[in-house]
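pasting UPF0250 protein HIU99_10730 for the record, 89 residues
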Amino acid sequence: MSEPKAPTIEFPCDYPIKVIGDSAPDFVQFVVEVVEQYAPGLSEKDVSVRESSGGRFSSVNLTIVATGEPQLKALFEELKASGRVHMVL
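structre below
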């Protein structure tokens, strides 16, 4: 029996991203600025924020127009390399 292939994404497409980091007054602005470098044209409706129940972490949910795997890889790497982001999903 052959192994099933991973699903492929057809680009360009709307692509949801969740960025989790320590809560800070400028965390959302920081995330949006980094994302805008790779996927310009975010609108307010494309961004939502949730705080953890203890208020220690923030989760920023964004929907971008993804153009390809290199774009997503570079975006994820820059967010993680910042030291402010714990996880990018």
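The helical segments are 27-38, 69-81.
Residues 13-88 form a domain with the Alpha-Beta Plaits fold (CATH 3.30.70.260).
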